[in-house]
Amino acid sequence: MTPLQRYIVEEIAADHADGLLTRREALRRLGLLGVGTTTAATLLAGCSNDGRPADRVPPTSGSAAPTPPGMSTAVPTTTVTFSGPDGRELQGAWAAAARPRGTVLVIHENKGLTDHIRSVAGRFAGVGYSALAVDLLSEAGGTATFTDPAAATAALSKIPQDQLVADLRAGIDELERRAPGKKIGATGFCFGGGLVWLLLTSGTPKLAAATPFYGPFPDDGDLSGSKAAVLAVYAALDARIDASRPGAEAALHRADLPFEVFVAPDADHAFFNDTGPRYNPTAANEAWRRVVDWYAAWLG
């Protein structure tokens, strides 16, 4: 099991412990990932008894939620295809800024290229950064071919990490082609946040900046091949991912990269996703403000 596969398994268990998935649904999803019934049952039982407070997930409010950060100026995205590694065709969502100050590679969560991630690309374009969100399920026909989000997650988990990184690098090349001469940043969420870290540890000098959101840092990750200025975003209630933060900070120090860490108070994993149950408007707005300021400083 790769670190990213382990991350997905642990996320399913955490969602069950937080009451977001029934036991039956959690077992089904773990089964799609190839986890045996006995192992899955043991994992769920252990996660349910790990001392997680009962109020980790904020209750939904009956009042209308405020407009998500960046949405008021977001531009529409268009579906595009472009050349990937080994002659493969990749799909993505492209949003062009009217007068681009830089560009951003947007990396999706473990459900694939959803409308939410498309909207994030549009939000970046709305504040001056042309953005491309790569569909990492392109080889399987694209995220839209999956009617079951859990099946999309299972398919993502089976893609070798080297292929994921190669496809994202192709996305960086496409950004260079579409906006020549502009500096490039990368923003990813959850699974995508982990892939931002993988891009950086695999040596991707074309990235001038990066803003991984609550993504797991690779074990013994080495950032010496990167030149990116990193704003690492975490959530105070997300102990599972926050456990990898010391390793990330140590690696950033060793590589002598410019960086800041923002830990959103009173927020949990996936707090930026306004379509999910853990959405936290206060934390999301503050994180967005910091990300936009970070890119203004390091991309232009």
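the 2nd protein, sequnce then structure:
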Amino acid sequence: MTSLSPQSSPRSEPQPSPESSPPSSLSRIRIGSAPDSWGVWFPDDPRQVPWQRFLDEVSGSGYEWIELGPYGYLPTDPAVLREETARRGLTVSAGTVFTGLHRGPEVWDATWEHVADIAALTQAMGAKHLVVIPAFWRDDKTGAALEDSTLTPTQWRSLTAQTERLAHEVRERFGLRIVVHPHADTHIDSEENVTRFLDATDSSLVSLCLDTGHYAYCGGDSVKLIETYGERIGYLHLKQVDPLVLASVRAEELPFGPAVARGVMCEPPSGVPALEPVLAAAQQLGVDLFAIVEQDMYPCPPDKPLPIARRTRAFLRSCGV
């Protein structure tokens, strides 16, 4: 999971106080951020900051690694994107795709058409990972059920078999490794469903992008998952949940979009899970791992993300990364 490190450049960022100096170096963890932490969920939306501002601010916050975000938000011409990221000292860690592979072989062609463009850009940017997010089972805005929240045995077989096929094709054609992202309001969400998915897929093909916020949102324990399925953890998203907001979200059965608008994902270190034990458990795996900060905030005021990003980077630095 390596690509060339960007050249260092001056940063205007807060520095941890001596009292918050890193207790130890988590040398295997590479910290980055993503358009998601700037309230970006769509390729084009008037409520989102322009991509130039995102790149300026993520660099100015002290991050060196970024994800592509929704395809089309950042420039899709590799030459343009390489120039824009390089002059800000940024390097791409991964691209992201959305899939509905449980729906059977008939969705393969449309899925591959979507994946191939993003994988090609990811490869061109020197990244080695493709984050795969399953389809939502209910509408992210209205909450209307799009399909059953529970997969049938046949759908589980389609999901696992086609995920392995996707992993093979992406590896063979683009040299990328897929990391499947458990996500609220999808069929890979809770501990039960995540472990069922891992147990049914080939470990040599399919790894996990453990999103600490989504996993906590769905009742999972990130440290336990890392300690139990360490060889399957290929990538991390660092995120926290506000437990009080989550309780109201669950009581009202809100879909994920309105839950985010209510503030269910919060600024570290004010939520759960605590990130220090997660990072320590990840370090113990003895492999290099990206840990990309994501604080879902769509939609948000344009001036909100930058101060949070700076504080979050300072907090993580105080944790040793």
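Strands lie at 29-33, 65-67, 91-99, 129-134, 177-180, 207-211, 233-238, 240-241, 265-266, 289-293. The first strand starts at residue 29 and ends at 33.
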